[in-house]
Amino acid sequence: MAQTFPPDLVQTQREWTRTYDALALQPFRTVLRRRLQRLSSRIARHPYWSAGSGRSPAARTELLRQARAAEAEQDQPRRSA
């Protein structure tokens, strides 16, 4: 069963992923590196992790998976019913 993460934590992970991808394209952008550091800190210090959910690598992997899935869902064109 997949963990349920708070929407703000998933959103922060989505922003982290977008920033990381942008930094990969422009590796010497200090502003992107600093943003990535701020987002990493926000993710690591989020209250969710202290609520008994643990900081296991599996939980971080699941957070990343859910953030990527949300990003892919947003990028898909919407179908009319």
The total beta strand count reads 0
Taking all residues together, what is the mean pLDDT?
Answer: 89
Helix percent reads 55-70%
Task: Note the total helix count.
Answer: 3
Based on secondary structure, the structural category is mainly alpha
Structural commentary:
The protein is built from three helices and no strands. It is an all-alpha fold. Helix 1 runs antiparallel to helix 2 and helix 1 crosses helix 3 (57-75). The radius of gyration is 14 Å and the shape is globular. The chain starts with 6 loop residues before the first helix and ends in a 6-residue tail after the last helix.
Provide a compact summary of the structure.
The chain is mainly alpha-helical.
